[in-house]
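Re: the request from the purification team.
They wanted to know what the chain is likely to look like in 3D before they choose a buffer screen. I agreed to run a prediction and write the result into the notebook, where they can find it.
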Amino acid sequence: PDAVLPELFFPISVEEMADATPTQAVALEMVSHPSNVKVDVGDKASPGLSMPSKLAHALALVVSAVIMMAVGIVLADGASVIKLKNPEDLPRLTAKTTVYMGQTIDLKAAGLDYRADELLGPAYGIGLHHDSAGYFWTQAGAEWSLQKYIDELGLHQVINAVPSVVATDGLKHPVEFLTCTELQKAGLSAFGLGIVAEVVAGLMVFFHGAALLGLIGGKLAKALSALVWLTLTLGFLIVVCLAVGVFTTTWTCDNPFVPEILLSEHFNYNYGFGFAIIGFACSLLVFAVQLFFTSTADGEVVHVAEGKSDHKMGLAKVLAVVTVGLILGSVSGVVVAAANDAFEDGDAVDPEVNPCAGQKPYHAGPGDLYFKNVDCMKDGLVAVLEQAGANVTRGYVGGLDAGSRRPISKDYDETALCPVNVHWHLGAEHLSEGEYDHHGTGPAYKNGTNGVHGYHDRDGEDYISKEEHDEKKEEKGDPYDRRRLGAEGGWEERLGLRCHHYNDEDEMFKTAATNAAEPYEWKHCVEMMVGETYEVHWPHSAAGACGTEWQYQTPFYDGVFCKDGIVNILTPLNTYKKIGVQGQVFTIVNSDEPQYQYDNLIDGAWVDGTHWADVAKYTGSTTGTTRDNEVCSRYAPITWQVDRKCHMISAKSFDKLCYDMKQKKDDMSADLYPHGAREVSSDHLVANNQETRRHARE
């Protein structure tokens, strides 16, 4: 300690250093005081990623993985992009007419009249890679295209072959089979973009994982990630716009059966379209986050001095970019849709064109002629569903087991059904003992045994016996094949059962032929007779043009089946829930007494305290003289509601009905006269589900 070091190294002495050094207690006090603690970071930094950058890359990695998985699902599912609408919302797909070998062909009359679900199946859809049958955009189940089949086999032969083609999935993929070339190109473009998105998303999973591990420099990571995510964002936007364009464009196809198709009329978007929109939004978000929360200095230094204000500013910028991007994306989609007139009401509907014309179905499946009349029995067994007209006498039970089928119990005006037609039959087709039965009488035939089963020769005044009718039928052919009023040679309608009101001595039952003092002169109805019995039918349907000027139709089948997809034969059977008929039996009287007046028969049965008070309800079929107990109707089952009582109504009121029919938009002239009556159905053809409860309504 006594040694003195050179002054060069120690400018102060050891003693002075000892005096300047604080004691332990003083030193501890100095350290513990905050004002004496200072950290000078200056320009110092530590290597690694900042926390915002880590979170940005982690977000991008997760979104990349989700996009890869979602695009994979869309590619793997054959119905991911579009799927057929419900049958009730589908219009006809096939054309109505075409020009073939210089002639205009009515395709519907030739048997080509299908919705998309009838040709492709109700669950059919199309994915990004293939359709629900597994066919790629350039593949089809059939060996040739539709046009080549027509060229090779002929148009009518191909129409006849449609059912077998449908059964073998030959129509799928329809874009290839129908030769919709431009639509096919659009589909392949969307598929290509999907593959690109799948590959890029997979690569970005590895890229962002490497960035998190510090294997990629900040400058490269920021530049490349921003560029790729911007590209993905624009790619998803293109896919969305392409989907909108494809969906709203009317595409032409090189064939005469489906020469053009607007997908939005037949299909709905499926989840794949939603995935594309979500992919666009997520890619846009990741792009903005990469832009504002990663740094070119990542991997070199971590700037400890970053504060909350910088993060808030970054979030604000991200929100601004995402908002502007979503707005621009929405505008782009709207512009594409508008360019294809997607927001227009569509082609103006010609109010003079009957939307129900020709809607009577002949097939349940393509070309099967399901609705053609068939033999009631086969090998001693009933081969049809329940028939009408039935015995509706209270307590009667039919002999055919209807299973779980039950008639509509509510009044039709309390359901979705509306009246679509009104017509009537000469005599009653149903049987109600004591009201209208085999013992009723009427003009020309006066005794009980001969009062029914004659034939009306259409001059409004005379009848002939069944024997005379059969002789004329054998001589001139079946009169039922000649359904023109006043056809040359004349023909007869079958007379059904009659009521018990007729009295040839009462003035109100008399006609000019029976010396009425003031015979009624019919102004609107044709071939009607005072004193006669008529059964009036009001077909109702949930598939009618309800509430429109085309609601009432002749033939009634057009009105019943006006709207496609509502009435189902097998998928599931709902005809007896969607179709119903009101039946009410009247004897016409020439009287002005108020109890016989009712001026609104056009809208349905006469309903008050005494009319429609006792109603039989059961399931049956359509009627008419083309059916009997040997040949049955296939338009079954449908609900019947029949008034068990026979009522009298004035000729003037009935004539008012014909006047109202003439005012309807559709031509109902073919229903202004009485149709022949089907014979009462045998017990073994009548359903066992008749309801007998009373029904009265004011």
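For the purification team: The chain has a mean pLDDT of 85.
Please add any questions underneath this entry.
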